[in-house]
Design brief:
Blueprint: E1 5-11, E2 14-21, E3 24-31, E4 37-42, E5 49-55, E6 59-65, E7 73-76, H1 81-88, H2 90-96, E8 111-118, E9 121-127, E10 131-134, E11 142-143, H3 145-148, E12 164-170, E13 178-183, E14 186-190, E15 198-199, E16 227-232, E17 240-244, E18 247-251, E19 259-260, E20 269-275, E21 283-288, E22 304-307, E23 315-317, E24 335-337, E25 345-348, E26 354-357, E27 365-368, E28 374-381
Antiparallel strand pairs: 1-2, 1-28, 2-3, 4-5, 5-6, 6-7, 8-9, 9-10, 10-11, 12-13, 13-14, 14-15, 16-17, 17-18, 18-19, 20-21, 21-22, 22-23, 24-25, 25-26, 26-27
Helix pairs in contact: 1-2
Length: about 375
């Protein structure tokens, strides 16, 4: 295998690294102290890895490694229940190496849910939803107040997982322009580095909201605000795709208006979306049977659905995926891709398996199994 890549697999019990060796795929972990890791990203130029997560027990934090995952340092950002225990139990404090140092953001948020690296700056999205940024590789952080103070903030409603900022999308050419996805407040965009934000949920066709009765469906001229995942397509245009709680959507104008491209898929519900690294019209998603119907592949037969024409038509890619008694879920950040030709596509399941396709979805192999619940998958390619 000629691909020099490492999959960064965030799970409920730490970060795992799935790499390619002479004998095939290998797994190392758990890393990051066994913390729940919601998302991890890497820098292809330096090999630095960051992993964000936490929860009520640990508090929120971002782990970083500059040696390929052999050692890790934690930037602990908020307090957790363990801090209260340690403050009142010297023996427990000694056992976990607790220092009593006050985290930078106190009790402000419980988890880091997403990371985004672009133009030398690292961003992190949190639960409850806020955006923080670091210019020193994740050692120190500051809040992006322009988003936190957005006039619509009092109207933001949490989804089933709470009010989370789970997606950060950068413009590769303009460091001041990027987008975020918040469940369930929708898409927000900035073009001045985060000082001001534009909420972008408008439908291009208001008729798209005239026949749905689902609570997360489009209405009042806007798509449903429970965006699940979003990616920018390659090329000079601001083409965005998103998997929403209700449907798959495409925007040709940076999110200022959205078109429904769900027709041809077996359901309106799913979590991840993936765009080809060079072809803006090739996308992949993994539909599930419904938010209240089990959240597993329709018919209990797994398929990644691919479109080669920007969502006008879809094809089910099943070769190598389980076709009987398949009840796994693939979460919003658990599908990734590499830059190779043909492009590799990877996804992880809540049942602990990682599947890989090295031919753009035509065929699939299970490359890891029996991991903890997988929350995210990203690819680190060597520069």
């Amino acid at each position: 295998m000629s691909r020099d890549i490492t999959l960064l697999v965030g799970t409920t019990k730490g970060l795992f690294l799935v790499g390619v060796g002479e004998g095939g795929w290998s797994v190392s972990g758990p890393h990051c102290g066994g913390w729940p890791i919601n998302h991890a990203v890497g820098d292809p130029e330096t090999g630095m890895i960051w992993a964000g997560g936490g929860g009520d027990w640990h508090g929120a934090g971002v782990w970083r490694s500059d040696d390929g995952g052999q050692s890790w340092k934690l930037a602990k950002l908020t307090k957790g229940q363990m801090d209260d225990w340690a403050a009142n139990d010297p023996g427990f404090a000694e056992m976990i190496g607790w220092t009593g140092e006050e985290p930078q953001f106190g009790p402000d948020f419980a988890q880091v849910w997403s990371l985004g690296l672009a133009h030398g700056r690292l961003h992190a999205g949190t639960k409850p939803a806020s955006l923080i940024a670091s210019d020193d590789g994740g050692m120190t952080w500051q809040k992006v107040e322009g988003l936190t103070d957005h006039p619509s903030r009092p109207d933001w409603n949490g989804g089933a997982a709470g009010l989370v900022l789970h997606t950060i999308v950068a413009d590769p050419d303009n460091p001041k322009k990027f987008w975020v996805g918040i469940s369930a407040a929708g898409v927000f965009a900035t073009e001045d580095g985060g000082a001001t934000w534009d909420r972008r949920n408008r439908l291009s066709n208001a008729e798209d909201c005239g026949h749905h009765d689902h609570p997360a469906a489009p209405r009042d001229g806007e798509m449903g605000h429970c965006v699940h995942n979003m990616m920018r397509a390659p090329g000079g245009g601001d083409v965005l795709y998103q998997q929403n709680h209700h449907g798959v959507w495409r925007s040709s104008d940076g999110g200022r208006s959205w078109d429904d491209i769900t027709e041809g898929l077996p359901s309106t519900f799913g979590f991840p979306i993936r765009v080809h690294p060079r072809d803006p019209d090739t996308i992949w998603t993994l539909p599930l049977n419904g938010d209240s119907a089990g959240r597993f592949p329709p018919g209990a037969a797994a398929a990644v659905w691919r479109s080669r024409d920007g969502g006008h038509s879809w094809q089910a890619m099943r070769n190598g995926l389980p076709q009987e008694s398949c009840y796994f879920t693939v979460l919003r950040q658990a599908m990734a891709g590499d830059m190779h030709d043909p492009a590799g596509i990877y996804f992880g399941t809540n049942s602990g398996s990682v599947f890989a396709s090295l031919d753009e979805g035509d065929t699939w192999d299970e490359i890891a199994r029996h991991l903890p619940t997988i929350l995210s998958v990203e690819v680190l390619e060597r520069g």
